[in-house]
Amino acid sequence: MATMADVARSAGVSVATVSHVLNDTRPVLPHTRQAVLDAIEELGYTPNTLARSLVTSRTRSIGLAVSAISNPYFTEILQGVEAAALDHGYSILITDPHDDPVHERKVVQLLHERRVEGVIVAPSAQPREMLAYLGRHRVPAVLLDRLVHTPGGGEGPPFDQICAESTEPTARLVTHLAGLGHRRIALVAGLPGLSTTAERITGYRHGLAASGLPYDERLLVHGDSTAVGAERVTAGLLSLGSRPTALVTANNVMTIGALRALRAHGLSVPEDIALCCFDDFAWADLFSPRLTAIAQPSRDIGARAVRVLLDRLAEPDRPARTERLPCAFVHRTSCGCPDGPERPPQTEKPDPSKKGTPRDRRSR
Questions:
Q1: What angle do CA 174, 272, 330 make, to 5 degrees?
Q2: Are 301 and 162 in contact (CB under 8 A)?
Q3: Rounded CA gap, 351 and 337, in Å?
Q4: Do the Cβ atoms of 140 and 108 come closer than 8 Å?
Q5: DSSP line for 308-322
Q6: Sheet harboring 328-330: ordered strands across?
Q7: pLDDT (0 to 100) of residue 48
Q8: Rounded Cα distance, 161 and 296, in Å
Q9: Mean pLDDT of residues grouped by 10 in the chain (364 residues)?
Q10: Angle at 73 (CA atoms; ends 68, 79), nearest 5 degrees
Q11: Helices marked H in the chain — which ranges?
Q12: CA–CA separation, 209 and 85 (whole Å)
């Protein structure tokens, strides 16, 4: 097996110069650096990363803590994190906090003890202990997907934060359905306490208000961000005396649960009830009907989180920042529209003198 000394002899440089090239500990002339890299390639030299970390106090590793890694949304985020980390010469260690505050605190501590240089975390609904640990030990961190606010109402977020827009895209789903004539639009919201849940509820209510529709608390239910929870609460919506004619689900997993409930009740989408969902996923275009959805830039979120974390490592004292990435409205047919270009949403408020559309008459 080739050694660092072998590389140095082949490149015609000192062992110290090879070390500087490998560890970025001192500037090296471009032609010298290239000679060292060519020797490494020719000899098949593999650096001892453990020994390197002992010398440099750097592990070139990032910790990633996200729940429900099997969820396609978080899987794509993981792919974005991994690709960006590798581009910058970092590896990643992955843990699943299971959306449990106690376990979340433990896995973040475990990552820290493994000497990762920073962590990227999708916080739970109650992240206080985890955030306290990060702050107490001054662990460079980026919060992903779900936002937290500064305790005591102070200015600025406590950590760098990266997420997608949630409020306006949810409102757009609601106004689109209202523009198609729906007057009873329900929302299957996520787990209470998550910023994404709160923002999508706000967007839902904004969409109703913009469409001139009243808010009915019976049409807002929490599926707790799970398929089982969404199936249960969707069944409850369908048992109402005047059931909804359209449904918005607030994440991809809950969309599956809602569809199961609709099938169990013998209802067809969109003939009996229209459906729009937050989160696009790979097979959404394969459903019949094809699912109208809000697509989050999942991979971009993951990649951006890595770049922001590396900025934090380079400038530990710079102010924390929150970045929101835009989403895309993916127009298909589960909303009740035919295939083809999106029709402009109706802006007129409903005329109370009219008896309503066929969808209104289907509600019961």
A1: 40
A2: yes
A3: 22
A4: no
A5: HHHHHHH-TTSPP-E
A6: 220-222, 185-189, 246-249, 274-278, 292-295, 328-330
A7: 60
A8: 16
A9: 85 88 81 90 72 57 86 89 93 92 94 93 93 92 88 64 97 98 97 94 98 97 96 97 96 94 96 95 78 95 97 93 95 86 41 38 34
A10: 95
A11: 4-11, 15-23, 30-43, 49-56, 72-87, 101-113, 128-136, 167-179, 195-210, 227-238, 252-264, 298-314, 358-362
A12: 43
Q: Which amino acid is at 258?
A: A
Rounded Cα–Cα distance for residues 230 and 236 (Å): 10
Tell me: cis bond preceding 270? Omega within 30 of 0 counts: yes
DSSP 88: T
C-alpha to C-alpha distance for 227 and 235, rounded to whole angstroms: 12
pLDDT at 51: 52
Return the structure tokens found at 213: 């529709």
Distance CA 350, CA 343 (A): 18
Q: Could you tell me the CA-to-CA distances from 196 to 123, 147, 165, 335, 345 in Å, in that order? A: 11, 8, 9, 23, 25
- Strand pairing class (292-295; 328-330): antiparallel
Structure token digits, residue 279: 């989160």
Can you read off the two tokens belonging to residue 349? 């408020």
Predicted pLDDT of residue 19: 81
Amino acid letter for position 350? P
Residue 267 buriedness (CB in 10 A; 0-12 / 13-18 / 19+): middle
Nearest partner of 187 among 179, 195, 198, 70, judged by Cα: 198
Question: Which residue in this structure is represented by tokens 């991994």?
Answer: 82
| d(C-alpha 336, C-alpha 338), whole Å | 7
Rounded CA separation 279/295 (Å): 5
What global pTM score does this model have?
0.77
Q: How far apart are CA 321 and CA 329, in angstroms?
A: 26
